[in-house]
Amino acid sequence: MDSPRTITGSDPQRIEIEWADGHTTRYSSSQLRGLCPCALCVDEASGVRRHDPASVPNELTQAGVELVGNYAIAVRFSDGHQTGIYPFRMLRKNDPQG
């Protein structure tokens, strides 16, 4: 269930993931930036989000998507942020389409 078949990031405003079970997840770049799990965005000790997802502009774009091992992707955003690692399990769990 948490294994992607394909990850497409050719559109700078969206990333699309087709999962092994045939389901497709689409994230806008701003949705992904709002979910960032890095230590700058989420307090490591408390788990409290430091970065307000509502502050991410809708026109934010991504400048690159890279695989991290066999378990995640890393994304570079147009606002300069690039420290988040997005595990596949988290991406599937937070699917905006349900």
N- and C-termini, Cα separation: 14 Å
In the CATH scheme, the class would be Alpha Beta
What is the CATH topology assignment?
Answer: NE0471 N-terminal domain-like
Measured on Cα atoms, how large is the radius of gyration? 13 Å
Number of strands: 6
Structural class, from secondary structure content?
mainly beta
- Total domains: 1
Query: Largest beta sheet, briefly?
Result: 3 strands, antiparallel
Query: What ranges have pLDDT less than 50 throughout 5 or more consecutive residues?
Result: none
C-alpha geometry: globular
Protein architecture, described:
- The chain is mainly beta.
- It has one domain (4-93): NE0471 N-terminal domain-like.
- The chain has two helices and six strands, in the order βββαβββα.
- The protein has helices spanning 29-34, 88-93, and strands spanning 4-8, 14-19, 24-28, 62-68, 72-77, 85-87.
- Strands 1-2-3 form a three-stranded antiparallel β-sheet.
- The longest helix is centred in the first third of the chain and has 6 residues, at 29-34.
- The relative contact order is 0.23.
- The model has no long low-confidence stretch (mean pLDDT 94).
